[in-house]
Amino acid sequence: MTDQQAPRATTDTTSSLASAQPQAKKDILGYLVLIAGVGALVWGAVAAIGTGWGFWAYTSGLKGVAGAFLLGIAVILIGLVQEWRVRKSITPPLRARRWVGMLIALVYVGWIGTFFVKALTVPAIHDVSTDLADPPAFQTLQLRADNLDNVPGADYPKMRGLTPEQRWAMVHQKDYGDIRSVRVNEPVATVIAKAERLAKARGWDVAISLPEEGRMEATETSAFFQFKDDVVLRVRPSNTGEGSIVDMRSVSRVGQSDLGMNAKRVRSFLADLTGTVTAAQ
Questions:
Q1: Which among 178, 213, 232, 279 is placed 20 to 30 Å from 188, CA to CA?
Q2: What SS3 string covers the chain?
Q3: Is 0.85 surpassed by the pTM of this model?
């Protein structure tokens, strides 16, 4: 090696290190986006699962899910801004970490976002019944004490002066008008026995099943938050003596809005129970 070659090699090495250092420095934001994206998903999952395990109140769990949702949105926005800033850079940082973090955040935000959208499209009630005039009554399970405390519509001009029960019936009829009593061509005891088998097949906890009285009460528990919704089925002989009239009621134990889950449960269960749902005559 000549004396002229050695300084040149040293200069090239120094130049390479100098160009590498800024890029490594710039990629710190990529690490932050990745960590925050994973953190949003973990935060939301822990908030939900911790609620189900009883570590904190469900309201705290919901706040955690909402906080993780906002963090996920921030991750996506920061990642997009960084992408815009470095797209014309001579030595742009690696994109993999940033995009993985953004993708994880997007999956979580999209999933939770569906619940927010659902909350805007369904009424803020948590009690659904096929019979609004005479809802099936719980006898073994206990109806929540605040069931009608926050029924929407108290300030609406059309509902002003109505009782909570009347407002609930109006809101229910407007949004869930298709949920009504159904008639099946089977005796009462047979319907209750079939309902019990169907409830157990769905993983519900059957509190009581009395074919001779035409009544069944059960509870369904959600997967993550372990929310419990109580169900009562009332089956009576039809007025004509042919078949039975089936009524069902589903009530959430906590929360003001059920995100439409009780209505979905009633529709699905009655459809499976009767085969083809027919309005009672």
A1: 178
A2: CCCCHHHHHHHHHHHHHHHHHHHHHHCHHHHHHHHHHHHHHHHHHHHHHHHHCCCCCHHHHHHHHHHHHHHHHHHHHHHHHHHHHHCCCCCCCCCHHHHHHHHHHHHHHHHHHHHHHHHHHCCCCCEEECCCCCCCCCCCCCCCCCCCCCCCCCCCHHHCCCCHHHHHHHHHHHHCCCCCCEEECCCHHHHHHHHHHHHHHCCCEEEEEECCCCEEEEEEECCCCCCEEEEEEEEEECCCCCCEEEEEEEEECCCCCCCCHHHHHHHHHHHHHHCCCCECC
A3: no
